[in-house]
Amino acid sequence: xxxxxxxxxxxxxxxxxxxxxxxxxxxxxxxxxxxxxxxxxxxxxxxxxxxxxxxxxxxxxxxxxxxxxxxxxxxxxxxxxxxxxxxxxxxxxxxxxxxxxxxxxxxxxxxxxxxxxxxxxxxxxxxxxxxxxxxxxxxxxxxxxxxxxxxxxxxxxxxxxxxxxxxxxxxxxxxxxxxxxxxxxxxxxxxxxxxxxxxxxxxxxxxx
Amino acid sequence: xxxxxxxxxxxxxxxxxxxxxxxxxxxxxxxxxxxxxxxxxxxxxxxxxxxxxxxxxxxxxxxxxxxxxxxxxxxxxxxxxxxxxxxxxxxxxxxxxxxxxxxxxxxxxxxxxxxxxxxxxxxxxxxxxxxxxxxxxxxxxxxxxxxxxxxxxxxxxxxxxxxxxxxxxxxxxxxxxxxxxxxxxxxxxxxxxxxxxxxxxxxxxxxx
Amino acid sequence: xxxxxxxxxxxxxxxxxxxxxxxxxxxxxxxxxxxxxxxxxxxxxxxxxxxxxxxxxxxxxxxxxxxxxxxxxxxxxxxxxxxxxxxxxxxxxxxxxxxxxxxxxxxxxxxxxxxxxxxxxxxxxxxxxxxxxxxxxxxxxxxxxxxxxxxxxxxxxxxxxxxxxxxxxxxxxxxxxxxxxxxxxxxxxxxxxxxxxxxxxxxxxxxx
Amino acid sequence: xxxxxxxxxxxxxxxxxxxxxxxxxxxxxxxxxxxxxxxxxxxxxxxxxxxxxxxxxxxxxxxxxxxxxxxxxxxxxxxxxxxxxxxxxxxxxxxxxxxxxxxxxxxxxxxxxxxxxxxxxxxxxxxxxxxxxxxxxxxxxxxxxxxxxxxxxxxxxxxxxxxxxxxxxxxxxxxxxxxxxxxxxxxxxxxxxxxxxxxxxxxxxxxx
DNA sequence: CATGAATGAGTATTCATTCAT
DNA sequence: AATGAATGAATACTCATTCAT
Lengths: 208, 208, 208, 208
Known about the structure:
The structure is a homotetramer.
Chain A lengths: L1 H28 L6 H7 L4 H7 L3 H12 L16 H18 L2 H10 L5 H28 L8 H21 L10 H16 L6
Chain C binds a DNA duplex through helix 1 and helix 3.
């Protein structure tokens, strides 16, 4: 029993180690160029052990996207007492960008998109999380802001989409075409210009 | 003379055929997994002939990117006599989306992004064209519209960026996660909602 | 333990087999025309295994050169008790010729020379061993003979060079232009004529 | 007629040009690495024309070795009135080395040797010229010197061999392992040391 | 007679995956 | 359960040679 438990623990540690190494390699080299042997070496296991845990490269990749992948992010804590609309929107942007840059969602998206033709389901799942679910979560915050009178009533689904689109255009899009991209130094200024636009569109006293 | 002419014609036909096949394969399998031999076979030429026309896989791919990139940069014909602001903006959106969908820039971008870690220069070049240069071209049209009083004076560089970002978010982003994506049937309605937003921000009588 | 030992034994057998096959092919076809796949097949291993042992064609070839080069540098056992000067010189010649013919240094040199334009370092290395280092080793024996009064004092570096040159001219040079050359039947007689010349030049009672 | 003559002249000029270019390439890159297309371009003809003149790479190479190759050299003029033995021997050495270095016999030998396994006859022919015939020519001079009492009577065939061997060892051998080798700056001194040895062996007052 | 575009067989090397120990 | 040696199929690219014009 105890032995069994021990074994299972070791095994799950190995699994975790493999996932960690694999994520590192896939993000760094892309799906095709990442090598199973390299991943195994990096995780301090033999290739055979690697294959015991994940029966193919594709499965390993899928496991990363599903288990390890970036969370859509929790925007629920974005509203704090005493905040102005701008404060909240700024916080939303920051959470968003932190996921994209610090949690390497940019790099992961790149790799997943590359595999769209060969593993479409994986990409669809990712879009569900990083596209739709995230949008729902943002939308909820925006609805709350509308309820509080901080924004004028509007189609928050479409609004969240537009807001996300502007932010992506300015920050995410260029990062997708650059290895190891980081947030630019003038990020704050750009964020506020995006917020300006959002408030011009949907601020409490925006024209109809 | 006749010989030369004939040869050149044959040769340029072959070149076009190769480009067609190559595009097909790169979009279907991605850069790394597309095989030069397969491309050659598909184009009904030998690998050696393929290499006579394009001296490396990278160059062949670059040629395809260039082919798509050229029209991406030309919005000069978007203004026609008697147009309203909305007419022009609509036409800009349509040109944009046609390049992304009909000319398959979406799929191509996916492929290029996949190679960011291994061929960063290629990606940087593509972003230069499909990101920056295209924006410049859009900006020129917007400036013209401002001059004509169709839009209120504003930072057209940033405006073009925001507009492009909104359009991308709604149409391009989902398409990147889907193989063989097509424009949705309600494209027109969505386009007009994006234009609504743009005019609300930068229309002639938009608030400051 | 037992596993490790066993594996290592198998592995070293394979390595030896690969070297044998490779030598055969390189000597038969020359460096460029010898094929890694053919060598692997001949050694009954897959190309991948071949590359596990030798990470490139160049390295494989270098290993063969090294194998022949090592004995080429060792003349230390040439002096035995009770020997006359002629005995020792004869033994030196025999060792020299054995390396050239039995160990196929002649053929190997031919192959290396062919690659001088494309892999100059390889040739330089080989000359260092088969030219200079061998000469040093011969020189050491000659110095010892001088110390023992068997040869008159002289510039042993140049002497060894001349001696080697005479031997090469008579035996090696013709062999370089002939496939599968063997020592001629009257080798002994020719060796002694060369020794005659050497003793005439540097024997204990040679004129100054 | 005149036309015919003209054509034949053009044709033979082309042939010569091809041979010139081919020699250049073979010497520079070696047989295998020299490319027919490169040779044709260098000679300003099409590959098809090249093949009209020489039906295969091998034949082209053979033609070079046979037609263009380095002459064995004419040593007959080496004896001039008033010369000492040393003067004559020095002149012989210089002629020898000039053929090897200036006329590129070193490089040619390297290339031919490389092809010994595949075209043995070619190598045999070359050795006949550069080994035996040259030796005969040298021998004739030495015999004349003996007749004039400048050298003591001896087996001039073997003597010429030894002399050539010493010279080769010092100058030619190292050059074979080096691309674009040139005569060393201290060539004269080395030549005289070789002559010293020769005279010690076969000078008029050499010991028996 | 001359061209140069086209060929197809060939090269070294890599990598996901399996299997004897 | 774990190893790591072994595999074989695949890949980009080259080159001597031919043939339609």
